[in-house]
């Protein structure tokens, strides 16, 4: 049975890379997000209880890259089931409005809403 996909598949790690704001070096990519924090998937473990200056580079509608800068404190870090990768949980320190907007947009984009019945 062939089923048509209603949502286009995107390679989210390509869009949701996390960078060190000071060095502009990639830290990893987002595994999941919430208004309070995020999970980072990286090749190295993160230092627990350390505060990191982070940056997301988000593609805008006009094709320009928008930076979302924020601080986050690592709450935990552990090896992932995938060899050579680590999962780390971060709590955001006063998330900026751009981050909140991004989380809301992702929640809206990936939510499953019932189809409206046509009258």
Short description:
The chain is 15% helix and 42% strand. With 119 residues, it is an alpha+beta fold.
Question: If you had to describe this structure to a student in words, what would you say it looks like?
Answer:
By secondary structure, this protein is an alpha+beta fold. It has a single domain (12-107), classed as predicted glycosyltransferase like domains (Thrombin, subunit H), CATH 2.40.10.220. The chain has helices at residues 12-15, 97-110; strands at 17-20, 26-33, 37-42, 51-59, 65-79, 86-93. The protein has a 6-stranded antiparallel β-barrel. The chain starts with 11 loop residues before the first helix and ends in a 9-residue tail after the last helix. GO terms for molecular function: cyclic-di-GMP binding.
List keywords for this structure.
6 strands; single chain; 119 residues; alpha+beta; Thrombin, subunit H
CATH superfamily label: predicted glycosyltransferase like domains
Which descriptor suits the 3D outline? globular
Gyration radius, rounded:
16 Å
Extract low-pLDDT stretches: 5-11
Write down the oligomeric state.
single chain
What proportion strand?
35-45%
Kindly report the spatial arrangement of strands forming the biggest sheet: 1-2-3-6-5-4
How many strands appear in the DSSP assignment? 6
Q: Identify the CATH class.
A: Mainly Beta
Number of helices: 2
Reported for the largest beta sheet, the result is:
6 strands, antiparallel, barrel
Order of helices and strands: HEEEEEEH
Name the structural class: alpha+beta
């Amino acid at each position: 049975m062939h089923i048509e996909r209603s949502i286009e598949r995107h390679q989210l790690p390509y869009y949701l890379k996390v960078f060190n704001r000071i060095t502009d070096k990639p830290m990893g990519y987002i595994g999941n997000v919430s208004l309070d924090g995020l999970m980072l998937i990286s090749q190295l473990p993160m230092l627990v209880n350390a505060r990191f200056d982070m940056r997301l580079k988000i593609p805008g509608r006009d094709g320009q890259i928008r930076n979302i800068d924020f601080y986050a404190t690592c709450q935990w870090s552990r090896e992932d089931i995938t060899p050579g990768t680590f999962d780390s949980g971060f709590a955001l320190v006063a998330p900026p409005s751009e981050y909140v907007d991004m989380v809301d947009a992702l929640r809206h984009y990936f939510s499953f809403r019932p189809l409206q019945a046509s009258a």
